[in-house]
Structure formats: structure tokens, C-alpha cells
Amino acid sequence: xxxxxxxxxxxxxxxxxxxxxxxxxxxxxxxxxxxxxxxxxxxxxxxxxxxxxxxxxxxxxxxxxxxxxxxxxxxxxxxxxxxxxxxxxxxxxxxxxxxxxxxxxxxxxxxxxxxxxxxxxxxxxxxxxxxxxxxxxxxxxxxxxxxxxxxxxxxxxxxxxxxxxxxxxxxxxxxxxxxxxxxxxxxxxxxxxxxxxxxxxxxxxxxxxxxxxxxxxxxxxxxxxxxxxxxxxxxxxxxxxxxxxxxxxxxxxxxxxxxxxxxxxxxxxxxxxxxxxxxxxxxxxxxxxxxxxxxxxxxxxxxxxxxxxxxxxxxxxxxxxxxxxxxxxxxxxxxxxxxxxxxxxxxxxxxxxxxxxxxxxxxxxxxxxxxxxxxxxxxxxxxxxxxxxxxxxxxxxxxxxxxxxxxxxxxxxxxxxxxxxxxxxxxxxxxxxxxxxxxxxxxxxxxxxxxxxxxxxxxxxxxxxxxxxxxxxxxxxxxxxxxxxxxxxxxxxxxxxxxxxxxxxxxxxxxxxxxxxxxxxxxxxxxxxxxxxxxxxxxxxxxxxxxxxxxxxxxxxxxxxxxxxxxxxxxxx
Length: 573
Description:
The chain is built from 15 helices and 25 strands. It is α+β, with helices and mostly antiparallel strands. Helix 3 (about 85-100) crosses helix 4 and helix 5 (about 155-175) packs antiparallel against helix 6 (about 180-195). The longest helix has 20 residues, at about 155-175.
């Protein structure tokens, strides 16, 4: 079927603002359901509008596709771009507008990846009557937790990359004009991003002239740094707490090495348990691949590991998977019974259908930290002195792999951790060689009994696989700022120096088979920079610090204080 493309279509909002869109429609006289994508990255950018669903392919199969610039971006009205603020109301208005355009049959689905996926969720939370379904990949549900801040630490690497490297560059090109001042600011932004680590290491980093000068057009960087505990600012921008109003089912797409993994898992858990309609609770689906953020969904490898061509979103044909499911919700196809969850099991390198997430046929298994760097299923049976190290925020442990959204010089995904193993501020605990395969499937957490000489500090834990060739490959990781150890992100608690406390570090989740002949390895340290801001150990938020203090760290591994990592596994011990 031929496809007609109409550009610069005006979409009126309730407050008089006009957003602009490109509309793809079948070249016929029929009426069709509408697929709506709302993006801050440019409606004409194929790199961001074609990753999950190809609009021309969708139009050729009988859909009207609307791709819209969100408020304040590219062709749409708005003097500045304040992420997430307008997407509830603008999403509602856009869905209702799309339902009534020529060639539409009144039924609408929203979709998107990353920010566009979040905007799709926000539209669903606003409950426009015409909305029938949501397909969202790698999107956030909480503007505080795991977006701006993870475990209480500022997501510095992602914000420098996203706000300065992506948003500010385009905003300056849109609003800055062609004068010498505009060109100078553009050059300053480029320099700040290219000199990434030096930019992040400035004290205080939010005093950067370039950051201050772009915040009028992209205020999110300064605002995110200023709001260092969860509050009204974050609730106004979050889907969290609003699932009870949602009636449309959702198809959630996530990646094991994606920066939004935990958000996607919370999306799925909430829509399945809290949605207002039975349809939303029963028909929502989750797919998790071994992917990094964005275009990494279409790759067959991540970091330094190849998972086979069958792991890629291209081989999976994400477009067909999503459009077929959307058509079921839009009434164009008879609903088919699908397993609600489909995950890629790394190591085994195969897809597996699950009845739920976490899988109900798994059980907890604890691996304990012991003296002499051992990791064992046996709890500590004797009094062992604590492991000690000095954390100096002036010489932080560098970022090596993981679920990153940072410049390409920082490799995303599973990466050999050897470069940091020799550091004196990294504790290493290694299991014996596994006698049989170990399948891990579900959330991963670490319980550290630890003490610091400082009034605040960070704890970083990585779960890794030690290969026979000597490489240590990261599987998942987590960070916890000590003052948020109680889990209330709105109410930090002071730390008394040298007091032994229990810290619960969330390493998110994984699905992997660690084969016989390999080993498990756990790394413990106090920084992952510049992915996260350094904790200055002074009680001052790292992004506002003007001085740094070293801290003596102790991690306990004795009978009364058995530090350990908790996995969910399948099969026997």
C-alpha cells in the first residue's frame, strides 16, 4: 500500500500552544487506528523515530502514524524545554486530537522509546478516552529514582550526556540564532562534553559556566541537581503513583544493560497489579533483551560480549511484535494468548517465556563474603576482621561498563573489570569454580554490614562472572548513598562515623546462566565515576561539593555481621 506523508501538521493544545507533527497515512479512503509517537529528538530523525516501530511500514499495513515534536522542541511552540512537565496534559490533548483527524477511526495507541516511551506512559496516566494501548521501551517511571538519582547518588554521567550532549545542542541550534554569541556557546557545550571527565570533576560541577548558560533553555540539569531528595518536583513529572488510573494495557520493552531497566520493571509490576481495568492488568506484556539503551536494542552484542544474532531486536522483529500486539488491543486482530513475559537468558543465549517476573519457580540463594577474598554459600563460621580500604574522592574508582548512557569512550554493557581490580579501594570476593551451571533469574541485592569514618559515603557493589580466561565480566551493579540507607528517598538519615550499619544495595536484576567451570565474583567499592557523582564524604551532596575528604571504610564478614549478595536461582544448589 502506498503511503502519504504530510509534514508540519499543527496540533493545538488546551492552552493555545501549537505542537507540530508529521503524519504518515495509507493512500486510501478508509479509516484506520492511529499510532502516536511524541519525541523531543526531532520528528524527522530516523535514528530516534524508527528504532522500535517503522512509521512507513506501519502506515503501509493500515495505520495512521503521527510523529510529534513535544513542547519546546524543534518545530513545536514553547520558549524552553522542561522535560516531563507538560507530557500529561499535552499527551491527553494529542491523543484526543489524533482520534479525530482525517483517516482515523477514533482509536489511538501511543508508543516510543526512552523519553518518547515515558511520554507515552504519561499520556496513558492522563486517561484520554481514545487511548487503547501503550508500547513503551526503555522509559522512566520516576523522575527521582534511577533517573536523576540512583540509590541517592546523582546520575551525573547520564545527565551530562543527555542534557548537554543531546538536549542543549539541539536547543541552541533551535533558539540561539546565528550570531557570534550563539556560536561561542555552542562551542562551549561541545567542549564541555568532549572533556567529559574533567567537566564532571570540577568543584562544584554545577558551577560550570556552560551548564548555567544553557539552563534558561534546558533547565532540567540545574533543577535535577537541586532536588536531591524525592518530593513534589519529582511527583509532578512521574508516572509512579498514577497507575491506578490507567485503563490501557502496556507492552514494556527493556534491556539487561539499559539505564532504564529498573524503571521498566516497575512499570510492568505496577500495570499488572494496580491498573484500573482488568484488560490492562491481564494483557500487559514484558520483553527483556541483552540490550543497552536506544539503538543497542537492534544489536547482537553489548560491550565485549556477543549474544548471537537471535538476541537482537532486528532478528526478533520488534516492529512486527509490537504492531501485532497493538493491533490486538486496537481491535484489528483477534487477541492471542501470549506468555506475559519473555526474557533473553544470557550465557545460554536463548529466549525464555515466563509466567511472571520474577519467575515464580526461582528461589533465593545467598553468597557470603569471607576473609581472604572468598565468596561462598556457607555463612561465616568464625570471627573474621573486616575488610578495609581508603576511599579518596579525589581519586575515585572509574566507570568500567554497566548500564550506561554516556559518551562512546565509556563502553556500555558487559565489559572486563580487570582495569579496576588492582585498585586498593576495590574489594574482590571470588567463589570456587562452579561444579554445575548456575541459572540466575530475578532481582539481585547486596546486604553490606559496613562502617565509615565519614558522616556520609557511598557503597557500590558489582556482581560479576569470572571466566576461565581471566576476564571479569559485570552482570549487574548498584550504588547506595549511606544517608538513604532507610529506603525513604525523601528523608535522608545522618550517619554516625564508625557505626556499623546494614546497607541494602539494589543491583536491579538479571537473567544469566553462569556455566560450570566459571566463578562468581563480587566487587565492593565506594565510587563509580563519572557515571555517578562522587560522594565527598562531608555530608554535602556531591554535585554541590567544594571540598573532598577521604574515608576509612570497613566491610564486615563475620558470624554476627554476614555481608552477602542475594540471587534468585533455578535448579538445585
